Queue: 2 jobs
Job 1
Amino acid sequence: MNESFHLHQLQKIDSQINHNAKRIHEIDELLNANFEVEKAKSDENEHAQIFHQTKIRLQKINTEVEAKKNKISQCESHLYSGKVKNPKELQDLQNELKSLRKFLAALEDEQLEKLINFEDSEREHQKVKETLTKEITTFETRKAMLQSEKETLIINKNRLEVEREAILTQLTKVNIMIYERLSQEKRGLAVATLENNACSACGATLTPGQRQESHSPQSIYYCPSCGRIIYGG
Ligand SMILES: [Zn+2]
């Protein structure tokens, strides 16, 4: 086996290692970015507060209505007790009762409005709570899938590293250095192949003579256009 062949094998492994590492990085980012859950949590929190406020407002008006009703009841008892004889006093009591009832009617309108608000906010809160539960379940399912994928990727990574070590033993130190340098310069792709008589990396067409050279097992052939090693097979 020639050096170009082994360099090509090394490139294939390194490309897989890079691809693997990129996906592991993506998975880590996806595992940390649970935007939907965060958004649902913040919505739930907001609606819980609104619900709490409407509940307090409703309780307050309920108490006020109750107090007003008691006041009316007392006034009525007093008025119809027969103890008040003085016409002026009776008139005053009747006027007070009239005013209290008017006040009560207004309060009851307000009470109804507060009750509607309370029920609306309760429904809305329930809805966002359900959304939050759904988002958490979705995220947990996705998380389990991603973690399982990551475990497989780590196993692959370890296997590829063992394979890489084995290939390095087949190469001369000089060629390894050339490969590493090219790999750094060419964003991880040091070895190209022949594809339709052209360099698979940059697309430059090779003459029959150049193609012949890329097939040679004795020497390493470099693409005249991009400088990568071309493994002609
Ligand atoms: Zn090229």
Job 2
Amino acid sequence: MSGVLAVGRSVWHVTERTTPLPRSRTRRALALAALIGAAFVAPLAIAAPAAAHSSLVSTTPETDGSVGSPPAEVTLTFSDDLTQPASPGDGTTDVAIYDESCEDAGLIIANPGTADTRDCRDYADGDPVVDGPRVTQAVDTADAPAGTYTVIWRVLYGDGHADSQMFTFTAEQPTSPEVTPTASPTDAPQDPTESAAPSEDSGDDAGLSAPVVIAIVSGIVLLLLVAFIVWMIVRSRRS
Ligand SMILES: [Cu+2]
């Protein structure tokens, strides 16, 4: 960095009587712009390896949160798009939901060899659905009790790495017998009371992923800018 400045300064001294001043001013401005550009890009370059690996951003129900009655679905939202299962139920993406009567549910991640879940009921209903950075697992809420639920999940990140973790949430009430499972997703938008929740969800997701996209795009733009400035400096030095 100081080399660039030193060269710029010496050129200015040597050529100050033979070369028009605006030219060396331009060079110094370019060198300064390169330094400023590098100052912006350096933190991004350091942050890049950390951002490369996805992470869990949020869950619904909220991790360690509580809901009224057992939810019709559980969702997990990650920082980046996940890898779609090659075929439904191929095991790369899996979500299991156990109630608190399943004593070993918490051991599945911590110590899988000792976890005995043979007598546990898995409330997951069908295969999980992967949509971009989100996994949605339908829940069979029939006769689901109140209490703490443990969600065990496995996903395949966009970079091909697998991850498996767990979280818990609490249902304050059991599923009431008279309540039938909720309407199908295609009916939901017509019902104003039911459309509120899904639209809120998608809004949250857009808000979470936007800064990441902006950071990546601005990083690329800055890199191109710096490359262009360096090219200009090299070119002007040769001439
Ligand atoms: Cu990874």
